[in-house]
Structures are given as structure tokens and as C-alpha cells.
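Worked example
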Amino acid sequence: MHKGKFGTAINCMDGRTQLPVINWLKEKYSLDFVDMVTEPGPDKILSGGKAEQIESIKSRLLISVNAHGSDTVIVVAHHDCAGNPVSKEEHIRQVKECLKQIRSWKLPLRTVMGVWINEKWSVDEVIE
């Protein structure tokens, strides 16, 4: 059995986003560990990608939820994303769609939210 409190980030594979997300999640939710599900442009995938890609993200999230007891998940979009080179406004729209998708899975999650990593590589919450 796991020891410690886990959360999960569905994050871009971009290394610039990893530490800001981990540090923010650990501080905001008093987490010990952050599981990472990474893809290039995960907001694009979860908001309208191929079913196989979405299922892959879901299956990895389920490992975090079922094996580590994670009940907090965030979807990350960021400035200067090579995997999803769209405007900030489009990223935010996609993140909101991702949150609907994740909630439709009816997982035992306390928190499902989105964040935007800005040009200073700091975290801004996406307000629904």
C-alpha cells in the first residue's frame, strides 16, 4: 500500500512545466507526491483527440487513482506549447472541455481543475 498523499497532473511532456506544476500542487493541496501523465499538448488530446489517445490518458489516470489513492487531478496547458501551438484562449477553452471529459468518467475525485502555465512559468488557475 502507498504511503503519503498523491495528486495527479495530466501535463504536457515539456520539461519546463514539470517543476512548477509539482511544486504548486504539493503546496496547494498538501501533497507528498504528484503522479504525472504526460503527452505533447494533453489539452488538445482530451478535448477532441482520438479515442485511443483519450483512453490511454484515462488508463494511466486510473493507475494513479486506484493504486495511489489520488483524488486530485489537474489538466495543464502552457505558454509556448510545441505539441499544441494555439492561442492562450484556445488552450483555456480546451482545458474546460478536458475537465468535462474527466468528470464524465465518474472517478472518485475530490478535485478536478485546470491550470495555465504562463510565460513566467508560474501557475494560474483556470476559472470555469
Q: What stands out?
A: The chain has one domain: 6-126.
